[in-house]
Design brief:
elongated; 2 domains; mainly beta; three-stranded antiparallel β-sheet; about 120 residues; 1 helix
C-alpha cells in the first residue's frame, strides 16, 4: 500500500430530490486534475447545484500485504481481536501495523505503508 494524492469533490444540491444520487450532499474522491475539471464544469452547468468544494486528500492505495518481509503468511484472518492488525496515527496519514505470528520471526511487526524519513518511530518497528 502507499499514500496517493487525490481530490475530494463535494457537491451540495438544492435538495435531495434534485440530486442524481438522492442525497443533498454527495462526495467522491477523484484521481486526476482532469477529473476535477470535468466535475467542476458539470457542477457549474447544473442549476440544481447549490455549491461545490474541492480539497486535496491522501488515500491509501494498493493491496494489503499477504506475507511478512521474512516470507511468513499473515493467515488472511486479519482482526484486531487476535492482535494481528492495528492502525498507527502518523503525520503522514497513518500506517497499518501487521503482526507476524510465526515464532522467532525477525520482522514481528511491519508497518504498511513503510515508515518514511518524516514518520514517527513506533515501539516494535
Amino acid at each position: 500500500m502507499e499514500w496517493v494524492r487525490r481530490w475530494s469533490f463535494t457537491v451540495t444540491f438544492i435538495s435531495a430530490d434534485r440530486s442524481p444520487w438522492g442525497v443533498k450532499v454527495y462526495n467522491t474522491h477523484l484521481a486526476t486534475v482532469e477529473a476535477v475539471r470535468r466535475w467542476r464544469e458539470r457542477a457549474l452547468a447544473n442549476p440544481d447545484v447549490e455549491n461545490y468544494r474541492v480539497e486535496p486528500v491522501r488515500d491509501l492505495d494498493g493491496d494489503r500485504p499477504t506475507h511478512c518481509p521474512s516470507g511468513h503468511d499473515y493467515h488472511q484472518g486479519f482482526s484486531t481481536i487476535f492482535g494481528r492488525h492495528d492502525w498507527i496515527v502518523c503525520p503522514c496519514g497513518g500506517h497499518h501495523l501487521f503482526k507476524c505470528d510465526e515464532d522467532g520471526c525477525p520482522t514481528r511487526w511491519t508497518p504498511d505503508p513503510p515508515l518514511a524519513v518524516d514518520c514517527v518511530s513506533f515501539d516494535g518497528v
